[in-house]
Amino acid sequence: MVDRYTSSHHQEHNGTVSPGHLIYSEILSVTSVMRKNSRWSSSMQTFYTKDSALASNLGLRRPGPNSVSTPQQGSREEDLMSGFEELKRALRTAQDTSSTPISNILAPFLAIIRSPLSTGPITSAALSALHSFFTYGLFVENDPSVDGALAELSSSVSHCKFEASDSSGDEVVLLRILTVIEDCMCGSWSPRLGDIEVCEMLETVLATCVQMRLSEALRRSAELTMHKIVRTILTKLYILEPASEEKKLSDQSVLATATDSSAHPPSAEQLSDHPGTTTQPVTSSQKSGYGLPSIVELLRVVVNILDPHDRVHTDSTRLLALGVLNTSFEVAGPRLGDFPTLRMMILDHGCKYLFQLAQSDNSSVFQLTLRTISIMMNTMRKHLKLQQELFLTYALDRLAPPAMGKPSRLGTPVQRSGLFSPRSSRVTSPALELLDEADMERGSPTPNRPSVIPALGNTRDLLLEVLSQISSHPSFLVDLFSNYDCDINAENLFDRVIDLLTKGVYTDYYGDSLISYLSSQHLCLDLLLTFINAMATRATVPCTDWPTGYIAAEELVQRKSKKIIILTGAARFNSKPKSGLTFLEENGLIYHDLSEAITRPQSLARFLKSSTPIDKKLLGDFISKPENTDVLQAFIGLFDFRQKPIADAMRELLETFRLPGEAQQIARITETFAEIYFASKPAEIKSQDAVYVLAYSVIMLNTDLHNPQVRKRMTIEDYQRNLRGVNDGSDFSPEYLQAVYDSIRRQEIVMPEEHTGQLGFEFAWKELLMRSRQSGEFMICNSSVFDKEMFRSIWKPVIAAITFAFMTFEDDYIIERGIAGFRQCATLAGYFQLPEVFDYVVISLSQATGLLSENLPSTVPVFPVVEVEGQTITVSSLGVSFGSHLKGQLAAVVLFNIMNGNGNAIRDGWIQVCLFVFYFRLCFHARQVFEILLNLFIHSLLPTRMLQMEDFLGDVSMIPLRGSSQPTRPLPRSDGLLSTLSSYLMTPYSSSQESPVPSASDVDVENTLCALDCITTCRLDELYAQIMQLDLEPLVAAVRSLEALAYERTNARLQHESDDAPSDSADGTPRPLPYDPASVFLLEMMVSIVCETPAHIEELWPIVFEHLSLVLKASQRYSILLVERAVVSVMRICLILAAKPSHLRDQIYLSFDLLGGLPPVVADSVAEQIMSGLILILQKHREVVSSQTEWNIVLALIRSSISSLEAARVSFDFIQRLITDVPQQYLCADNVVGLVAVLDDFAAAAGIIVEVELQQARRRPQSNSSSSSVIDRGRQAVDLMFEILKYIPTLTEDHSEFRDKSRHQLTLPVLLSLSRHSTSASSEVRHSALSSLSRAVLGPLVTVPRPDVADVFQRVLYPLLEAVISVPSNAETTESRLRASALLCKAFMKFEISDNASGEDVTELWMQVLDYLDRLMRTDQSDQLSEAVLESLKNVILVMHAADMLIPPSATEHDSTRDQPRRQLWHMTHDKIERFMPGFMESVIPLSSGTTSSSIEPSTMATEKLDPEAPDLVPPQTTIE
């Protein structure tokens, strides 16, 4: 709104109203209302021009200002109307209204508003006109009269006067005033207002708010206007510069009371009677806009209204002031602290009055006060260090539980003090409970605290809500701990807050009160969990580092530790001084700084003077005893009395302790003070005795002037008369005594704990302000540096409170928060490595689940089994009870989910600390968890995957719950959790033949389903897997717990049975115990843990081996399944021992001896498991067998089981792993040939079994899997031969014993075996052998020396060709011939062409190759073979031609490029091929003149590199394997 005439409000072309028309309309509106009044109702009006310009221009003489020809009253009435007439005339003569100053336009309207002759309707019309001017935008930016006009408007509105009529009409006028003030203050012209104008209008609005005779609606409207104006004014703080504004405030005196913080604002009655009162008229025409002075004045008035001891103001007025102050904090709370004047106003009177109002009995005042305090603490907390300590201490004291008839710690009845109680050195608060010995040791109480009434009902909830709002910052606990708990002179607010919240969750905390405290309990828990969540967030998310500008975190932690010792020592001193001094000396707090300059009394005096927890009354009594005179001397000697009047010196001394009541003790203190004070050479005092008398007189004068029981006060004359002649025989000067008298009269000497009323509070508050200047800055940082110390001190009560709430409260939200709290506590425990936290969680939640039983049954009862949606369900008693217990299910879910979730987090990199270290820190706690799992197992509630066992045989089975006479078919292989366990499949739900199966109701089935769903949610299989992550100490404890439980189910039970009944049956054999599934389950769990933690096998093996030995030595007394599992367990652990140092390998042979001593009947049942385990050990740990004797033992064990089909399978698997897994560890010169022979036997067995079946001329039965497995092993044996061939070069190079041996001697047996089996009756073996032979001969693995090339052809290839030629022709033999011919040609090209670098004669070998090709084509006349042979032959010829070995004759007779061998080779080749393929040579290599070897390019197939992995050279239409 820069120009009112060019704005969008007035555009002539669109017919909008012009500013002139608007002004005319408002003039008519006001004058019309005026004419309705009798004063202006006359039709003729006379307007006196007075000193008009017209009279002066005509030379007329006008009377002076003192000579008036008309009555004054009539002149006023006429002036009001004439002002409008003159304005109309000015508007008519002006071409443009913009030329008319805005002050002239507003003048008649403002005159009406100021005039007492005006009535309510007239004033209302004038105010309405002003509102229209603001709404329309009449003011111009560049109008020089705007500032003056706004000042006049402010003054007029603030001094509005009119004749009262009816109340409703008058309130309309007041409402119009509020509207105009809001337009002026909240509009765009607000910055043009000066501080005086702002104060005037604020005063007017405030006066309207507090006029109780006005209607409620008007006062509420005034309050809304006040709040809106305050928001506008306070917003300007963000653009003001604090330094310049503070300087301006100190330099000017615009507002006489702006800086007088002790002045009181006008009362409500004064504001009502004089709404236009102002401090100073407008005198300045230049306005720079309002600033800090007006804001200071606003807050000064508001703050002083809050004074609860000022009876002028009512609670309704204070509610208004609280609302304004609350709005101020909401708008500019953080900015208020940047201005020293505003900050001190809030910190001093503002906080003092707010804290006192927080004890108001008026619920509205109390609620709004708490709201204001909370927003103040949130926005200005960095400036409110001691104020926050004081309020939180008071709030915590009020939130303490009722005393319930018990005496207080001090043995006095609880009385209301009505006041906060800040002390000179620390904030004190009431003590409402009996002080036990533990509290005394901690030093928690502050001596001689006044008492407050505990908050009840809604008051308590409000205090908790405020505490929640104040603590909304994530760093709240960190701030409390670092600023207060680590400060010896401050309260332990962190400890007190946590103590309140944890105890506030319990119902018993509130006693037998009839009032329901459920909401308070919920609030306490919610606030507690909020703190834990903030701490957990800091632990999981990177947070702020501790600022370097603050006190170092390490130093603060040291201060905290020292504070604990000091508080403990002070508490002991307050109880028994001698005991306290002994404790302090032992902990180095006193007498640790002794030197020549510091004596023992001085060291003790320093501590007593600086230690605020010391009881000041006890301190005065202690230092004034005769035996402590030296301590008294040292104590008073710590004060510096130089240049201090005696009244101030006595005040400083007596504020550190309380004078004892005995006269002799007072005399000792006074004498010592007189000696030390006189040594400081005070003025006018001539002797030490004079100081002694004067000090006594000060004590007596202080009591006389300020004791309320003294009616007649001592006058100055009395005081002077009492001290005549005491100054070494002379009198003190009247001025000196007058100064002492005035000092005591103005400021009482308040001794510690002497006053509990307003006087004591005022004194303590001043001391608090003094301490605030020395307490340092308030450290604010959301850092995790103190979290471990904090959590270490609070975890137990926090978890106990969460557990109580979880098990007691029914609210879903509270239960959900409790679950989150458990998880966060677990997260913090893992992060801070606090194992005892998990012990406590396990104990609490395990007992809450209801899954622990006192005695588990030795045999599993028969439970009904039902089918539900295709799933078999066992309805056990535990499942039914657990499924119906919702809280137990929740506890189980919480317990196991905490374990699982935190375990995963720790594995992701939490400083290599496994979470379950803490779960099983103590054996007892581990036992509880295992008992839960065992109980669930007995009642068929564990997940199926936790019941699976997998042994060396590869079968996966379930741990049976009852014995079964017939074994069941094994389950398919599974990747279950216990995949390393083993057993045969035995159904866990087999029916008993002895007991009838009970029935299950629908309710029981439904509860069981609920229990199963809960167990699934608990993810027990994941929990079990994470047990393997334990560190050594808890791991040993866990295994010992399992061994103890397993011992109870096996050996202890066996001994019990032996004692009660005969152990042998009728036939003399030992009577076995009934099958116990729990013993198998515990054994599997224990061994699985050991096997999954091989790093700790040395510590765990003795525990497990002891149990296994007891079971195997009495193997005939246990079920075969338990014995089998024990055997498998031994072999599994031996497998781990084999990987350990040699001193542990002896345990392997000890275990073999144990297994060898099994009875034959037992050994036959477990032979397969023993063999499987033995081979597995040898396969994984070849170094275990390092001698010929050890190899003999191994071969003997393997040979003993070769007759069994399954044993043969295991043996072959062992050989296969030996060759393929880590052959460099197993293959050596002593076993290569032997392994080839073994594999040759396997391959031969496959061919023999096929030949037998063919000779019998019958089809192989499909159901016969033995023959197919033999054939498959034969094929694999061929493949393994080729694998051995790969490692022969490594063996010949790495081992010295092979240096003199030819590589050819090691490879030839492999080639011979492959050649033999290339014609096997088994097609699988034949195809595999032929392919392996091709890869071996043509690949890089076989490098045949030139002298041995013919040997390879004669012993390997030619016998293969002879074999395939001799067999009858059919589809399979044709394929074999085809592949053999291709192999022959490729081998020739490799050995005789590619590798023949010396150019040796190949004629003989080449002729043999052609003969075999000729025989093949004559034997098998099939087109497929013919095409393949011709293609192979063509490739060989082209390659030989390209190598200049086979060169045709040229057209000329003279051919210099051909020597005699080449001519001979050409002719022999030509003749040989012409016999079975006439004209083939000419078609491949044409005879032409000038043809050379370089001009004939071999085909692609002929010149390509011989790749053993490439397909054989056969025609495209030929498919071979």
Folded structure, characterized:
This protein starts with 18 loop residues before the first helix and ends in an 18-residue tail after the last helix. The N terminus and C terminus are likely disordered. It is mostly helical and 1521 residues long. It is elongated, with a radius of gyration of 54 Å. It is built from 62 helices and six strands. Helix 54 packs parallel to helix 56 (1349-1366). Strands 1-2 form a two-stranded antiparallel ribbon. A two-stranded antiparallel sheet has the order 3-4.
Number of helices, counting only DSSP H or I runs of 4 residues or more: 62
Mean pLDDT: 75
Strands across the major sheet, in which order? 1-2
Gyration radius from CA atoms, angstroms: 54 Å
Relative helix content: 55-70%
Keywords summarizing the entry:
single chain, 1521 residues, mainly alpha, two-stranded antiparallel sheet, 6 strands, disordered C terminus
Task: Summarize this entry quickly.
The protein is mainly α. 61% of the residues lie in helices and 1% in strands.
